[in-house]
Specification:
Blueprint: H1 3-11, H2 30-42, E1 51-55, H3 61-68, E2 73-78, H4 81-94, E3 99-102, E4 115-120, H5 131-142, E5 143-152, H6 156-165, E6 169-183, E7 193-205
Parallel strand pairs: 1-2, 1-4, 2-3, 4-5
Antiparallel strand pairs: 5-7, 6-7
Keywords: Coiled coil
Protein name: Methyltransferase-like protein 5
InterPro entries: DNA_methylase_N6_adenine_CS, rRNA_MeTrfase/Polyamine_Synth, SAM-dependent_MTases_sf, Small_mtfrase_dom
Length: about 210
């Protein structure tokens, strides 16, 4: 599937109708989501025929991208039941098969389920300090092959140090820097939209 085609499919998906500020719910736009998953597949072979988990999947944009790129199994995890309802509708609309599970990924314990790749757009940790690190720590415990994650460029050194020192990463590299258009979703947002520099990371866990 070509990148533009993938972005087109993702552009039709429903997003949060009533986003929850405490969960830092922001939509992962089709531009970023398509490039994130397309790169994971075409540069590293981490999606097609792999078991892919989407942490904090929200309305399922990254899950849908993984399914469209022929992942063998896609599981989306989110704590918010409303988001999962929207994600389920999106999967039905695209006619792709995705399993959605309601849970807190930071407390996730997968028994016997082998996950190759985790993809995620975690909370940036602006409302709950350290939320981004909790997601990364959880993902590194679950993925056997790679973790793809978006983090603010301003936190680059902190992320790299923590991944290599604390989260058992064999490697941590920024694949590309993207611009994240943050629409005005919440009352405390002063401007109509904000452009944030974010890094797309690829982390490789050590094999235990």
């Amino acid at each position: 599937m070509k990148l533009k085609q993938l972005e087109g499919f993702l552009g039709d998906l429903q997003q949060f109708s009533n986003p929850k500020v405490e969960l830092e719910q922001y939509p992962t736009g089709p531009h970023i989501a398509s490039r994130m998953l397309f790169t994971a597949e075409n540069s590293y072979g981490d999606i097609s025929d792999k078991v892919v988990a989407d942490f904090g999947c929200g309305c399922g944009t990254l899950s849908a991208a993984a399914a469209l790129l022929d992942a063998s199994c896609v599981i989306g995890f989110d704590v918010d039941p409303q988001s999962l309802e929207t994600a389920t509708l999106n999967a039905e609309e695209l006619e792709v098969e995705i399993d959605f599970v309601q849970c807190d990924v930071t407390k996730l314990e997968l028994k016997g389920q082998v996950v190759d790749t985790v993809v995620m757009n975690p909370p940036f940790g602006t409302r709950k300090k350290g939320a981004d690190m909790e997601f990364l720590s959880a993902a590194m415990k679950v993925a056997s092959r790679a973790v793809y994650s978006l983090h603010k460029t301003s936190t680059r050194e902190h992320i790299k140090r923590a991944a290599l020192r604390d989260f058992n990463a064999k490697s941590a590299e920024v694949i590309c820097e993207l611009r994240y258009d943050l629409p005005k979703l919440y009352k405390f947002h002063k401007r109509k939209e904000v452009d944030i520099a974010v890094d797309l990371w690829r982390f490789e866990p050590r094999q235990n």
